[in-house]
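Changelog-adjacent note: as of this version, every example in the card shows the full chain rather than a window. The one below runs 370 residues end to end.
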Amino acid sequence: MIALPPLQIGHLRIDPPFILGGMGVRSSDHKLVSAVANCGMAGTIASVGLVRGECRGRAYIEESNAGLVEEIRLSRKLSNGIIGVNVMVALTNYDELVKTAVAEKVDYITSGAGLPLGLPALAKGSGVCLIPIVSSARAAEIVCNRWLNRDDCLPDAIIVEGALAGGHLGFNMEEVTGWGECTLQQVCSDVIKVAQKFEQKTGKHIPVIAAGGIFDGSDIARLFKIGVEGVQMATRFLATNECSLPDSCKQVIIDSKQEDMMIVKSPVGMPGRAVRNNLVESVNRGEKLPIRCPYHCLRTCNPSEASFCIAAALVSAHEGDHENGLIMAGRNAYRISEVVPVRQLVDELVSEALIGLSERQVLVSANESS
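Full-length structure tokens:
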């Protein structure tokens, strides 16, 4: 009997082997995180955008920490499942958010939007599983070498995020536009080789998890075929009952077409993918929108040069302004046709993946007998 193998990350057993990707400004808050965790998945809280009201400096750090603590504790109250936190390296309060997640004893921390070279030192001795997010084999090797040489540790898993993802992308514009359907499989294969090299050196197994543009179970089955042990998905879960994204924004996703999945230059300094609306079109025309920086949340953002405030844009979307807010979503978001319960979506993904693996098994058996 073919079944999806569970994803083993350190002491964590994730079954089905799916991780909810962290989606900022409360799109992956305690309601969605606990719902996926109750299905056996791992639920990731996005640590960005958890302040209420405007604040800067020490007040911003304290408000962010308090917001993260609240989300973690609410998630724990609603679920006994596996719950982690995503912290972007680009955040000005990166260290403080990591320390807060560690103090709250989350199960794991994922970290990207830059190389999380200092993550092990911040979580030393905590037992929290550490999972860098990379976009290339070179980045995976840099992280592994630095962690091993400086902190005598290795990642508990590695997430490989491709250029079809929503949100911020670890690629330049040329790489994003040249990214094909099979490229994620190639990059995952290359990262698996890096992980195997370090396993041979240290004896530690590092599972590789694929992310970015994964839409259905057939995608999952293809990735499992090349040795990927889990997938991270975010966009599909935007259109679920439990996601706190306003209904108006969910409807924009449902009504979207392929050409509405657009790349926008983010103040983070990376390309970002979002659904076409007034904001995205204005930014892509080169217009500079009025900015009043309420947080100074990003290391790489210079408000005097940025074309818009990404924090304000994401908050606007969360408040229901689907034309002037930023609705970040993956390249395949246009394929979503309805809002469904989390349990229904998870069951469909598992069923589709099993069909894909079963078809592969039949094909292999037929080739062996011929």
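Structural remarks: The longest helix spans residues 342-369.
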